[in-house]
Amino acid sequence: MATYNPTSSGVVTGRTKLFVFAATGATNCNFVTTIPWAPNSESLTGSFLSSGGFVVGTTAELIQYLGNNAHLSYIRREKTTRSELLAGGGITSTNEDIIPDPRIEVGVVCNGTAGSFTGEFMDEIHLTGAGATFQGFLGRIVYSAGNTLLPENTFRVDLVGVGVSGSNTPFTNISTGVTIENKNNGITATVASSSVRTFINTGDFASKVKSQIDYSYGMTGITIGDTTHLRHVILSPLDRDFRDFLQTTLPMVTSNAVTGDSNRKSTIYVPYGFSGASLGFSLNAITGGTVSGTSLFEEFAVRSLNKIVEGDLERKNSIFSIDNAQTIRGILTLGSFDSLQSDPVLDVI
């Protein structure tokens, strides 16, 4: 069986959090909170537990619980009351107050009584029919018993990470007669209605992910200078003040009008972060560049401008890709921005 595996491709993008859940049952998996994702941290399983999560053996098991910050906009609370006839007479009622997985995208109504279709949280689910097999992962099962929103003798299967292997096909043509199967236990059922409840709108989700792009390009680094003047620079390519500083200062330093001027400055103070200097650094404006005959400041400016152009291009490509994705799964598997954060990328069928 496939698993929801955000690191299978080695690509990590976007703003990611580890989503914490209090249980693994498909009917009672309660979302608790999020914690920072630190894949190399040996204490991550302990942090998951201390934050209210269930017991997990290894960090690798936690990968399937990764989610994008955008998912937090879809947190909802569901309250239900279940009534049951006791064998000795009388009725007992159970109140449930659950926050389902915010990553749940759709819910599909199927035929069957309570308990006829079972599974564990994040089991692999297939929907087969209408010329395609959609893959998803089990977020929750809601039975009609005690739920006035579902027809009698039906249940709803809520899914995370819905998609078709190798395709950007949207979740459509799900109608009566389509077969649903839990690939982990082999249990099957049929879809009862063409009505699919949508929990996350694709366009809305895309807008939230696009808003993360500027954050993703927030900081980067370059190395400049020969062996005598070697410097490591941390910079923000999207910083408007930084761009203005470069565009104003570089022509002054490289202009022929100032090359032979006796008043030409030999160093220029740069108000941005360098190794060994928290408040900027004075850069040699005459020599010190990696290439003979260039100054340290010239190299700083040119390499910084290259980073700005590269960032602008990647940013536009990311926006174009997100705008053309037709599924949540497609949006989250772009892998085109932010090498320091991560978004879910799915194993395929």
Based on the model shown, name its key terms.
21% helix, Elongation Factor Tu (Ef-tu), domain 3, 6-stranded antiparallel β-barrel, 15 strands, alpha+beta, 349 residues, disordered C terminus
Topology:
Elements: E1 16-21, E2 31-36, H1 44-50, E3 66-68, E4 78-85, E5 91-98, E6 106-111, E7 124-129, E8 132-143, E9 154-163, E10 179-182, E11 188-198, H2 202-210, H3 213-216, E12 220-224, E13 231-235, H4 240-254, H5 256-259, E14 267-270, E15 281-284, H6 296-324, H7 328-332
Helix pairs in contact: 2-6, 4-6
Task: Please tell me about this protein's structure.
The structure is a single chain. With 349 residues, the chain is an alpha+beta fold. It has a domain of 95 residues: Beta Barrel (Elongation Factor Tu (Ef-tu), domain 3), CATH 2.40.30. The chain is 21% helix and 28% strand. It is built from seven helices and 15 strands. The strands form five sheets. Strands 6-9-8-7-10-11 form a six-stranded antiparallel barrel. Strand 10 and strand 11 form a beta hairpin. Helix 2 packs antiparallel against helix 6 and helix 4 runs antiparallel to helix 6. The termini are close together. The C terminus is likely disordered.
CATH class of the domain at 105-199: Mainly Beta
Overall SS class: alpha+beta
- Quickly give the CATH architecture of the domain at 105-199: Beta Barrel
Number of strands: 15
Radius of gyration based on Cα positions: 27 Å
What's the tally of helices? 7
Shape: elongated
Q: Spell the H/E element sequence.
A: EEHEEEEEEEEEHHEEHHEEHH
Binned, the helix content reads 10-25%
Mean pLDDT: 81
Lateral strand order in the biggest sheet: 6-9-8-7-10-11
CATH topology of the domain at 105-199: Elongation Factor Tu (Ef-tu), domain 3
* C-alpha end-to-end distance: 9 Å
Provide the low-confidence segments as ranges.
Answer: 336-349
